[in-house]
Specification:
The chain is of the alpha/beta class. The protein binds fructose -6-phosphate (F6R).
Length: about 600
């Protein structure tokens, strides 16, 4: 969702901001804007749609400016509504990430004071609140603080100030991080935006004001205006590779990378896991939590904790915590799954669980994210940058980590490592051109169908749900994942001649049920596709069959991969934007 970028240095700000915004594109946006200080003026260019490959830089020279990619919330997708927004006297511009939840009340109040609004975006309210402070004789910096304190919701604002040629920013919830280089400062919603320029970062916390002037930054606490010495806390970013390599799309690259990323995510030593294992052993209740794909990881990890470790683990969706809140105590452990570490629903849930005193253990992929800072302990998924909006490699990284934890709890750390490494090498030989062709051929047969059903049971139930989510996100086709057991209780009413049904089948205690369920839909005319262990390739109930990489205990991982590939090839056949599907944002930083 919305991306913020700021730069002060020696180089061409328009060009650097353009490059930074390009790298924030993956977060999802529908309009963009860049403001720079050109001599004695702020110049702004903005537009709807995608940021062009180049901007007309000849007319724009500057070494200071800000940029924004907007994901419309309040107000339509128009050039006027795109950020940054000018103050009336054009002495500053503001861009914002987040939602001002009390926007209407603030707007009404300002309108009663004769302020006129040109847009219907919440950001304009912030501009007017700052102007109101300045009108009262308060300087821009302090007016910004006082305006910011009136905002409800998770917001981050960035201001370009013409008079003092500086950038100001305040963060509360929406992510913000500083990049540091000699005489240059970068400010962005995530470090991917500037890591081609610098790998030195400084984290910014909620409730902090950043002042950047002449290549130097200062951080203040907005509650007491005290200077915070953060310069000594410069950190190095982990390697971030955003090259597509030989692949046409990030999605395919990221799918193939899973042969390595499941090992990266679990390269922890037993000693490093010990603090979490100790907490889990002493916990009264264990909860796992996440949203979307990370929510299905949470489901799968809770499954492993129950099935492998015999722990009574409960999976919660980040946006449905209400009924659990009164149950959570300081004796509980919450395992949080989040690729970005910035998902608003997840952060809000964790803040509430923290208030109850629960121990928070997070599994995060994005370095420097908010979740890492509010957790008692965190583990990096180390999957590298995941640029495709649809999550693939981070999902399998998360569940690999959950599997490792579950096995470690029963003293089988080494066995888990062996199983992960055996799957990793089997995946290496799984990703062949021939297999891709076979899956593409099956995907091509599905192009004209609209409604699809995926059935799974036991270790494959949540994979049916994740598989359906993956395909609907990129193909825009209606896929639903069900527990196979649910079929007779209602779902079967939907099956008619030609309905595509995908059954996930593993050589486990549920195989017979999966075969009977598939026969039941086949008897009603369904087109049946099996995904699973090779042993079932010749089962008569399947019209088509996709075999998976061999593994004893990690079938959830090997079985989800064909779904990721079907999603990819189906979207390709349909001509969809694979890496940036419509309406979706990579980092869902608003509720
Ligand atoms: C789907 C997908 C989303 C995210 C969800 C949570 O492919 O990526 O469903 O899993 O928005 O995001 P994170 O993991 O960043 O908390």
């Amino acid at each position: 969702m919305c991306g913020i970028f700021g730069y002060i240095g020696q180089d061409s700000a328009p060009s650097i901001i353009h490059k930074g915004l390009k790298r924030l594109e993956y977060r999802g946006y529908d309009s963009w804007g860049i403001s720079i200080i050109d001599k004695d003026k702020i110049r702004t260019i903005k537009d709807v749609g995608h940021l062009p490959e180049e901007i007309a830089q000849k007319k724009l020279f500057s070494t200071i400016g800000i940029g924004h990619t907007r994901w419309a919330t309040h107000g339509g997708i128009t050039v006027t509504n795109a950020h940054p927004h000018f103050s009336k006297d054009r002495s500053f511009v503001i861009a914002q990430n987040g939602i001002v939840e009390n926007y209407l009340e603030l707007k009404e109040e300002l309108e009663s004071k004769e302020y006129e609004f040109e847009t219907n975006v919440d950001t304009e309210v912030i501009v007017k609140l700052v102007e109101e402070g300045i009108k009262k004789g308060i300087n821009l910096r302090n007016s910004l603080i006082s305006a910011f304190k009136q905002l409800e919701g998770r917001n981050t604002v960035i201001v370009l100030d013409l008079k003092d040629k500086r950038i100001l920013a305040i963060r509360n919830g929406s992510p913000l991080i500083l990049g540091i280089k000699k005489d240059e400062i970068f400010l962005a919603s995530d470090p991917l935006a500037f890591n081609q320029f610098t790998t030195e970062i400084v984290e910014v916390n909620n409730g902090e004001l950043i002042e950047i002037e002449k290549g130097k930054f200062k951080i203040f606490d907005i509650d007491n205006n005290k200077y915070i010495d953060r310069e000594s806390k410069i950190e190095k970013l982990l390697d971030i590779d955003i090259d597509k390599g030989k692949y046409a799309h990030y999605m395919l690259k990221e799918i193939v990378q899973q042969q390595h990323t499941i090992l990266k995510a679990t390269e922890y030593t037993e000693k490093e896991l010990k603090p979490l294992i100790k907490q889990l052993n002493n916990a009264e209740n264990i909860y796992t939590i996440g949203a979307g794909t990370a929510g299905f990881s949470a489901d799968q990890i809770a499954y492993y904790l129950r099935k492998i470790s015999k722990k009574s683990a409960i999976s919660i969706k980040s946006y449905e915590t209400e009924s659990y809140l009164d149950l959570i105590t300081s004796k509980d452990v919450v395992i949080v799954l989040s690729q970005s570490g910035e998902t608003a629903d997840t952060l809000e849930a964790i803040e509430l669980f923290k208030e109850k005193g629960a121990y928070i253990a997070s599994v995060i992929n994005m370095p420097g994210s908010t979740l890492s800072r509010i957790s008692d302990i965190f583990f990096m998924s180390k999957a590298g940058s995941e640029i495709c909006v649809a999550s693939t490699k981070v999902f399998t990284s998360q569940i690999s980590f959950g599997y490792l934890i579950s096995k470690t709890l029963i003293g089988e750390f080494n066995e888990a490592k062996k199983e992960l490494s055996s799957l990793s090498s089997n995946l290496e030989s799984y990703f062949t051109k021939e297999r891709f062709k076979d899956i593409e051929n099956i995907a091509n047969k599905l192009v004209n169908k609209e409604h699809f059903f995926i059935l799974g049971k036991g270790q494959n139930f949540h994979i049916a749900q994740e598989g359906a989510l993956k395909i609907k996100e990129i193909s825009y086709k209606h896929f639903e994942g069900f527990a196979a057991g649910e079929l007779k209780h209602g779902v079967i009413a939907l099956i008619e001649k030609g309905s595509p049904v995908i059954s996930i089948i593993s050589n486990d205690m549920n195989r017979k049920d999966m075969i009977s369920a598939t026969y039941e839909v086949k008897a009603r005319g369904a087109l049946t596709i099996g995904i699973g262990d090779m042993d079932f390739e010749n089962e008569k109930c399947f019209d088509y069959f996709i075999d998976v990489a061999k593994t004893e205990e990690l079938k959830a991982i090997s079985n989800v991969i064909p779904f990721q590939l079907i999603s990819y090839f189906l979207a390709k056949a349909l001509g969809n934007n694979i890496d940036k599907p419509r309406n979706l944002a990579k980092s869902v930083t608003v509720k």
